[in-house]
Write a sequence for this structure.
């Protein structure tokens, strides 16, 4: 599950965020404890705890004292909003610049996007 490209705690946090975005984890659903996570993936519990604390700080998870960690009710919408912002800056803007640099009219780009959207629906 883990690779060498980024710290394990970051990969854990990213996986949980992806599960929230995809609906695998729902609002107010309990997630594995840090010890369960550490045992299951054979990692240091402190590594799992660091990921979980980061997710709490970001508002993705919340703690219920003595019970465990749960998905925040607003987590999915918060993550979608973050992804929308990054989509425009990381995907759309470079695509538009590239199209202009190689002489593709933006109207043609839009037409292709609309065709792809129809195929996906």
């Amino acid at each position: 599950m883990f690779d060498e490209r980024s710290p394990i705690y970051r990969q854990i946090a990213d996986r949980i965020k992806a599960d929230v975005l995809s609906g695998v984890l729902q609002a107010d659903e309990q997630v594995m404890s840090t010890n369960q996570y550490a045992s299951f993936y054979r990692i240091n519990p402190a590594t799992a705890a660091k990921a979980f604390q980061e997710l709490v700080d970001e508002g993705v998870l919340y703690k219920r004292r003595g019970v465990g960690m749960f998905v925040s009710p607003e987590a999915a919408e918060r993550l979608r909003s973050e992804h929308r912002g990054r989509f425009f800056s990381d995907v759309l803007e470079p695509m538009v610049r590239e199209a202009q640099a190689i002489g593709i009219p933006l109207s043609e780009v839009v037409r292709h996007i609309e065709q792809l959207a129809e195929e996906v629906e």
About this structure: The chain has five helices and two strands.
